[in-house]
Amino acid sequence: MRKSFFPLFLYISCLFFYGCNVGDLSMNKSNEITIYGNIIDRATGSPLYNAMIELCSKDYSEEERVLGSTVSGNDGNYEFTVSLKTNDDATTVTQTYYVRASKDKYTSSEKNLELKSVDKSKRVKFDFQLSKESIMYKGLVTDSKNNPIYDAHISAQFSSSSGSGNDYNIGTTVMTDANGAYTLELPRPHIYNNNDNDAYDQWKYAIYADKAGYITTKHVLNQNVDDLGRTITLNFIMETEAEWDARENVTIYGKVTDKYGQPIANAEIQDYVYRNDYISSSTCWSTTQTNARGEYEIISPTEVYSNQSYTFHWYYCEATGYKTIYKSLKTSYGDKGKSYNFNFVMERN
User: Which of 13, 62, 260, 317 is most deeply packed, by most CB within 10 A?
Assistant: First the structure.
């Protein structure tokens, strides 16, 4: 009986057809790559949950394509597999590949992927340390005797280190608690003009502590991208207005009596400030009155006019029924914190 070769031909044809497909699948499988690794907070070392990891590429036209992505787990680990784009002949298209990790309120990070450096297992590890897009400031606000100051306002102003004049109040204000403690988180500053959103790599923060009855205190800090994610301790010591006056000005004090040594109550002491040694162009800076014992105290500035290195004072003493008398004093920056005793002996009109 004559045998037919058709089944054998059909078998060989199918084998060839399916073999080609298997070869293609094998080729496609060889173009798969697995990306895995771990994401942590750069400052604390803690794993970052729900961070986005993407494998991206750019072609000759610099158009970005996201080829695959996943998110990190509770332990900061991630893993995903992608199939790289191929030509008709199953060769990999020449492109630039990189892996990007990002998370809300953190600075994103990218690392280049060199295909020639990928081992035969087609697995490549990328670990990332992400920095927060902010700096945390914390500390204590106390008075000069180390007592905590409650409900002091802590605020900040931003200035570019380039001196471009882009200074503005950041708008975040926190209050100190009963222990004088505060925590202030400040974002990395950005430029907002012409729809631009570029971030500064270097900048300055002026951080203020303010409370009624105290002199406002500030710290000016130079910051850069390496400070992002850090916690910086910043303490404030605030002086009362009276303490500041005593340190930054001169104190004039004394007693007003008649020629018999009897105190004169309600005598008025006036501090007149002059631009020069002449009486023309004077300003009454402050006044006070004597108490029942004839005592007084008056706070005077050491410098008033920026175009001269000293301030000339005349202290007038007036009382009803008595002749006006005066004493002079010239003060300068070096006199800050000094006290002068001026006693007045008045005669009847």
Answer: 317
The CATH code of the domain at 249-346 is: 2.60.40.1120
Among the listed residues 303, 329, 302, 300, the one whose alpha carbon sits nearest the alpha carbon of residue 314: 329
Radius of gyration for the alpha carbons in the chain, expressed in angstroms and rounded: 39
Question: CATH 2.60.40.1120 spans which residues of the chain?
Answer: 134-240, 249-346
What architecture does CATH give domain 134-240? Sandwich (2.60)
Nearest to 38, CA basis, from 47, 30, 29: 47
| Whole-angstrom distance, CA of residue 12 vs CA of residue 17 | 9
- Global pTM? 0.52
State the DSSP H helix or E strand holding residue 11, giving kind and residue range, or none if neither. helix 6-30
At 226, the amino acid letter reads D
- For the chain, which residues score pLDDT lower than 70? 1-30, 60-62, 85-95, 117, 119-120, 160-169, 191-197, 275-282, 303-309
* Fold of the CATH domain 31-130: Immunoglobulin-like (2.60.40)
